């Protein structure tokens, strides 16, 4: 997350973060003192992401953080998200991040 905040700072961009209520509380505390503009909105369900279609403009960058397969946060429905995003948010630029793994997962 720090890298995303730093990237936005370098680009001179504002961040609007859509996340679950649990993550939202943590991010509010973590980035409360950051000078750049960061706003937060609650988004509890992955499918709620598609309700943002009207809000996201073609010159926005949609960055989605998604769990890797075989991790605790992974759900099989996540396999469809890249294709759905591409169809639903065209021509918006989209980056899907898969966080690095630490430890040995098999």
UniProtKB/TrEMBL annotation:
Protein known as: Uncharacterized protein
Species this chain originates from: Chryseosolibacter histidini
């Amino acid at each position: 997350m720090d890298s995303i905040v730093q990237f936005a700072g370098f680009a001179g961009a504002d961040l609007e973060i859509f996340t679950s209520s649990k993550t939202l509380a943590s991010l509010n505390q973590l980035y409360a003192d950051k000078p750049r503009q960061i706003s937060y909105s609650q988004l509890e369900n992955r499918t709620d992401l598609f309700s943002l279609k009207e809000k996201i403009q073609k010159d926005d960058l949609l960055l989605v953080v998604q769990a890797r397969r075989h991790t605790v946060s992974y759900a099989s429905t996540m396999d469809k998200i890249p294709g759905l995003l591409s169809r639903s948010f065209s021509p918006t630029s989209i980056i899907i991040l898969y966080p690095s793994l630490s430890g040995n997962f098999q």
